[in-house]
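Exam prep: given the inputs below (a chain plus adenosine-5'-triphosphate), describe the expected output before reading on.
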Amino acid sequence: MLSLNNVSVAYQKTQAVQNVTFELGVGQIGCLLGPSGCGKTSLLRAVAGFEKIAEGQISLRQQLVSAKHSHVEPEKRRVAVVFQDYALFPHLTVAQNIAFGLHEYTRAQKFQRVTELLMLVGLPGYERRYPHALSGGQQQRVALARAMAAKPDLLLLDEPFSSLDAELRDDLAKELRVILKHENTTALMVTHDQNEAFAMADVIGVMDQGRLMQWTDAYALYHRPVNRFVASFVGDGVFLSATIDNNIKLNSGLGVFPINPESGFKQGDKVVFLVRPDDIIHDDESETLAKVVDRSFQGSHILYQLELQHVGHARVLCLALSHHDHQLNELIGIRLDLEHLIVFKDNGDVA
Ligand SMILES: Nc1ncnc2c1ncn2[C@@H]1O[C@H](COP(=O)(O)OP(=O)(O)OP(=O)(O)O)[C@@H](O)[C@H]1O
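Solution:
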């Protein structure tokens, strides 16, 4: 449905997007995830046709819509965009807003589509309201209904929930996924919030400094990040130093762990490996002790920051059930439960 091949976007002095390649199939939901300034909005705008591209090709339905010397205008792409600020027409009712782009529909067809969409976005009976009489979340649902009304081939969403509060954001992200799947809409969303990406997307693209680092599902991003940037940006965790010794020997004294023999490391190589909070198991029986240096109560769990009592005094995170209630400076037993070791070359920046 959507295919990007080696796409670059440049402004006068800034190379905003560099050599991005990915594909999105019919009905798939993709999400571009990355920190502020990584180029995700520029890429979305290029797909919408608001930005021309400097290199590469963008195709929709196997038709070229953007290349260095050719550019199909946004209104000819059968693409709809939902912006973060809702952008509803204030002088039109909810029904008029949603029906705005349905030029070829009869009155009866418009009525039917508006009713159907309001039901889908959880606002049945809101036809005659005006935008100012709706909450932020409700306005964004109407904006979504309006964008989906004419059944676009591709729906683009630019941080659609960023002006809503955190709880509403999570709920809406989950609801939006159900709505998009119900209509079999292909969608590409931009966000800097990994929870939103996890809740929404079939496939996630992590971007850093204009480049697409990895394009895969949430599970693979978390468990098989391709580099340190992705490993740090997606999920919590810390890197610990180690040296390759056929197996990996950990200088933090946490044990010896086998690595994938095809990883290409040789004996004596300095490496770092990723330890997620759920890899550190609190175990009173264990002789490996760590000191509680910080704790944050999260209801069912407590997230501890622990200082290892061995070489380097490295700090790790540990997610423990909240009835394991330990105080600052207490020494607690831990063990490492690492199934797949995520190992990268050491750049010398880990203690
Ligand atoms: N219209 C523009 N003119 C010049 N430079 C721009 C323009 N829009 C974006 N940039 C620059 O391009 C780079 C990528 O910006 P972009 O907005 O695509 O990133 P982003 O990941 O979407 O960031 P944010 O989450 O803050 O919106 C940044 O360095 C930004 O300053």
